Amino acid sequence: MLLRKNDSGRSIVEMLGVLAIMGVITVMGISGYSQAVGKINRNKVVEDVTRAVQEIRGLYAGKTNVYTTVPTGSEDDDILLSIGFRSETDKHPFGGVYFISQGKDADNGVYRNFSLHITGLGKQDCYYLCTTSWQGSAEECVPTSACPDDEDNELILYFE
Q1: What residues have CB less than 8 Å from 7, skipping those under 6 apart?
Q2: Domain for residue 6, yes or no?
Q3: Angle made by CA atoms 45, 138, 156, in degrees to the nearest 5
Q4: DSSP designation for 5
Q5: Strands 106-107 and 110-111: what pairing?
Q6: Does the residue 18 lie in any domain?
Q7: Which neighbouring-strand residues pair with 114?
Q8: Structurally, how many domains does the chain consist of?
Q9: Could you tell me the pTM of the whole model?
């Protein structure tokens, strides 16, 4: 009578195959998560800029000399703080800051436009924000000149 040996274990080749499949799935998951976080961060910056522009326009509605100083009665000298936005020490989702400056053109000494600066952007995020359709933007943003570096770009958006 012959005895049969029962082999019920797994071979090392089978285990390596399972590990390889798990590795591929993990890499795909991390990549998807990274893209999702990037999209959330870009959307947050778009929301911040849209809100800041609306608040600044509301702050200066009906004023004659606009976008040069904070209107009388504002709590702070900083425009962003006066609209309850954020201080210059607060960071946006990409690690940079926002700041506002008066426009580059004056109409009889009165500035009727302003620029919003977004610092600390990577090239891909800078391209995305530059090509976003900003309502009331005073000029087109050209990604090749606005986003020259791979990291630490400053995007300047002009608004009327």
Answers
A1: none
A2: no
A3: 45
A4: P
A5: antiparallel
A6: yes
A7: 102, 159
A8: 1
A9: 0.70
